[in-house]
């Protein structure tokens, strides 16, 4: 292609997974390196960078990448800060999109319809040249495949290691891990594990064991808090790692659309990997089983039949130890306290009514923030939705075109222009294309649906929030509790020693 000079370019920066791994190995900030390389390239070729879009999140889909959305929008406008845009520069083409077919399509469409040039130090892609477009399509497809393969290889490697008795997951309490990934007993922690099992066999409950370890000042596994949780004890008593076994693949992690991971238990035990005699056991099978039996025999605490007096029941947690907070009723009116149920916790209590007031005020703030956000969200989501809809229109046209072509070749066969061989060849070819279009069309439509749904969830939560604010004060504690549960997921309370009663923090997490 002809050499183009003095291009006004937008710079797009994004870290890949491999970059994150390299950074973890201490290879320095990747994006800073990319920025320097691109600056040098631009200088050398006499181009200008008129805007920089740096993705801080590492999502693969356009929906998860706010900077990409902004950039695509700018490309559609054709101008950035009053300057005409000629194209985009990035370190390699797959920074733009390693997402699904739809995302690929959206990006390519945007480049093509706006005649934007893609510059990478290795190659310049001009969408007006058909050959280049093929390149772009091919390479991004390869990048996606390679990405999937790396992923699969990683997963296979982990399963393989687990099958060989190596510890590839989280380091279990009581052990240390050598370079060979084999577990060895931790000198102090392994003793604590044995003590926990002994105490369980002696008939102590999980809570008693946890409190006793806290009293003895034994550091907790996480080290973040100094109070042992009974759930930690429960997990230790059930973990077969202490028998010298390695287990892997009992949970499955998948990416959520809105970020974070979704953890799912794998129920099919044939898919688990279990390796016995993988490392030195801390507990004998006999002790393990007896401890398990002892825990099972214990009867769970009986629930009293009295009605709930705490509107926050099972909703509010201690910011220090994670235990629930309880309401301590006082004879004197309005002097009820809210205190941590852990007897050794350092979190200071306060007047119940102060927390209740704070909660209501926080919910009011949420309400106004929410109404505002819903308005803004509309603006934020709109560009992507427009792009998707535009893509759907293009694809629908392609679908019709392909149908026409298919009809045509039937005619050509009947008229004797095509031989049967030629006819079959063309039919297969068209079929492949039609399938591709159909597939992409389906996922495009699904994406649009999902966006509408996301918006709906927020809108739907709004009336629940308003309902809580309007009716809360008219209800009994038990009904207040029910009402709060329609909107509040949890609350976390903390007050430091030596502060005033109202100088506490209350974090409220909504269930939307
Ligand atoms: Zn506490």
What does this 3D model show about the protein?
It is built from twelve helices and 19 strands. The strands form seven sheets. It has a five-stranded mixed beta sheet, sandwiched between helices. It has a three-stranded mixed beta sheet with strand order 14-18-19, with helices on one face. Strands 15-16-17 form a three-stranded antiparallel beta sheet. The chain is globular, with a radius of gyration of 31 Å. With 512 residues, it is of the alpha/beta class. The chain folds into three domains: 8-161, Resolvase, N-terminal catalytic domain (Rossmann fold, 3-Layer(aba) Sandwich); 175-297, Putative Large Serine Recombinase, Chain B, Domain 2 (Hect, E3 ligase catalytic domain fold); 354-399 and 441-506.
